[in-house]
Amino acid sequence: MGRLAILAWAFLGLLLLSADAEPARRVALVIGNGTYAEAGTLANPVNDALDIADKLRSIGFEVIEGNDLGKRELERSIGEFSDALQGAGVGLFYYAGHGLQVDGRNYIVPVDARLDMPVKLQLEAVPIDEVLDIMEQQTKVSLVFLDACRNNPFARSLSRTATTRSATALAGLAQFDSTRGSFIAFSTAPGAVAMDGTGRNSPFAAALLRHIAEPGQSINDMMIAVRRDVVSQTREGQRPWEQGSLLERFEFVPGEGPAPKPKPAAEPAPAPQVAALERSVGDDKASIEQFLRRDYLTPDTKTMAETVKRIYGASATIFGTRYDADAIVKVKTDWFAQWSSWSLGLEPGSLEITPHGEDRADAAFAMRYDYVPKDKSAARLTGKARVTLGLVKAVEGWRIESETSQATQ
Asked: How many CB atoms lie within 10 A of CB 366?
């Protein structure tokens, strides 16, 4: 995450704060196709899909699922998935069943497919890259898991009927040409064939179910564990593989991390000093509250440079990093340009003032926020956060010299 993105959040509890206060929705489409009209029955895809769907729900995903879907049913499920992705932060697509590649393009095979001739491919199958494109356009993180490389009779029949002018279907799947903010996991290497499994689940699905909910584990580390299990179970016969272009670390279940060490208790100030501090700032709580309501929570977006100079001065330390006024102006201008309306509010009775001499104080309070986007398809951002400001008293009034925020809901 770049410094400007951090600054945008820290300045008004905006980008990251809204994501934390109202956790980004995670939506999954899970499909298992096993009972094929013209290719016999695969034992495990439906079991795999049912178990993966249950596991994803248990870790916070909204799940759209379908099993043994024909072409029209499959397309309707993808359409429902597309609608559900609006405003989501993470999209996930899991498919188990028959899949094939033709000229380097991967296809899902519906259970009612009749693929006796290559020319029918576009009519009977669904390109996987179209599902990926829907995800990448609507979410920051797109995750795809394809257990679709099982030994495929469609590939054999299409290859037998191919002519010199028709595409040749190959077993297994091909890697995707390009991705944007995506992670794509294959149950086996490109062009190779995966096993359906002899138990309830395929080797890939079974390993995924074992490791996907481990707290604090990145998706890359998860795939190492999955690959190790599958290689061992199949005696080197199958090796899961992935490609990706994620820009940030992703964890299915965030880790708690070590508990922070408690800070040593501060020595109580002598009684005369406490009295002096109370006199220096305590009587000025009303002016701090006025500063928050008039300036910090209702900045004048039409005169951004003057607004930032009045609120922050020449610079401010935000989450431990010093930023000059020009950087603050740029981020703030870009942020407010996205919204048709917005409001920030001080929660009644939440303001706490800690004095630090005659001209400095910490102000901690609960802040409500509500942003209505200009883009009708974008999500409205609402929530509440705990804000802590380090304030210094200048000739013109109070200014912010440091700032932090933490989501409360």
From this structure: 18
d(CA 290, CA 215): 44
Angle at which helix 219-233 crosses helix 203-211, to 10 degrees, equals 140
User: Three-state SS for 130?
Assistant: helix
Q: What is the rounded CA–CA span in Å between residue 100 and residue 146?
A: 11
Largest pairwise CA distance in the chain: 96
Dihedral of alpha carbons 12, 14, 15, 19, sign: positive
| CA distances, 378 to each of 17, 65, 174 (Å) | 17, 25, 33
**Closest of 35, 85, 40 to residue 62, by C-alpha:** 85
Q: Which of 28, 237, 90, 74 is nearest to 149 (CA)?
A: 237
Q: What is the rounded radius of gyration, in angstroms, for the C-alpha atoms of the chain?
A: 28
Residues 6+ apart with CB under 8 A from 40: 153
Q: How is residue 275 written in tokens?
A: 């009295």
Question: pLDDT for 17-37, tens place per residue?
Answer: 333 434 579 999 999 999 988
The long-range contacts involving 274-277, CB below 8 angstroms and separated by at least 24 positions, are 277/355, 277/356, 277/357
pTM attached to this predicted model? 0.57
Q: Do residues 251 and 218 touch, judged by C-beta distance below 8 A? A: yes
Q: What is the pLDDT of residues 135-176, one digit of tens each?
A: 999 998 999 999 986 555 555 555 444 333 333 444 557 677
